[in-house]
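Sequence in, structure out. Go.
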Amino acid sequence: MPVKEMSSEEIERFLTCARVGRLGIYVEDEVHIFPVGYVYSDGRIFFHTCKKGLKIEGIKNNNNVCFEVDESLSDASMYNSVMAFGTVNIIDDKEKMVPYMQALINKYRVPEPLDVYMKKRDRSIDGELEVSCICLITPKKITGRKYIKDKIEI
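Output:
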């Protein structure tokens, strides 16, 4: 079975369930790739990051990005790969950030209210929101490919 295009439903399901994505951005005329935990919802991708650092500086200088998610078996008998091309906007308003942070906690931790989650870890919501921001990618184009080997040899 050759490489096939993923359907829009397969792409949606894969982006929703995958755990780690890779953000490709330009930083000082070089392409950099950053692994990020993310959430895919309502056709958009978002993640949180620090307000200072190479990643956020690159985004501020050029908000055109590529976002990639993949999975494969070690013997390459199966893989899925999705790439999204679009623009990223930075959300740093604390009130607007809270639902995004909650969605990230719900995906990567035991789903519980943000304030409960932060208190259990001796962290303050205000402190976390002060040093973080949400990056929201609006894809202009999303492609997906899949491969499953016809026969698996043992």
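Check: The CA atoms of residues 84 and 142 lie 4 Å apart. The mean pLDDT is 91.
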